[in-house]
Fold:
Amino acid sequence: MIELRGTLERSGPLPVIRLLAEAGQSGALHVSDGTFSGDIFLEAGRIIGAVAGSDTGTKALELLALVVGNCQFEFTDDGSPRELNLILEPDRLRADLDRLEAERAELAEHLPSVLAVPHLTLADSTTAQVTLTTAALRLLVAMDGRTVLQLADDRGLVQTLRDVAELTRLRLVKCEPLGEDVDEDAAQLRAFISRPRQEPGPDAQIGTRGEHQRTAWPRWRATRPEASANSTE
Structure:
């Protein structure tokens, strides 16, 4: 039985996922930063499933890859039952990991924390024409002083992060720190993590794994060259 455990600072679980996939490993990888946690299941170097809270499949994999901060991980191949809700063959998996690494760096550049408050900053914008997705436009209209985490309550955290980063990159929005009320921040995180899903996706009936023990949100630290200012539907 192979066991592998350790801690990755700032990079999240992506490096260890890549290592296990390239080595052709089979087993269960549990990752956690004390706030968000989940499991990724591999078979012969393929990802065959992922679970994070009430999310499963692709949604769970993206949540773990993009949101988990200082990552504690544990991999075992003891033959325990694995969730089968996602199939990523090696070639597709490598491409997806590359994409997620680039996206994680971009999110880090534009978002200090899920507890930041996005504000409209049209006065700082140029007169150039910009193109927004429908999701980003809806988020822009919905901004009313709530944090990114609160805005994500009925939209999904990963999608909200993507939309806020897009609006920030286009200089339509600026994110401000919420404040120093650590207890209130912690309460928001606990409420978001434990909330029931109102409309789970078609693959969201597989199950839930992981315990959430701590309430400190990891601050991202990364940079990435500025990308194009346009997006499409």
Notes: The first strand starts at residue 3 and ends at 8. Residues 3-103 form one domain. The chain is about 35% helix and 20% strand. Residues 29 and 90 are 17 Å apart (CA to CA).
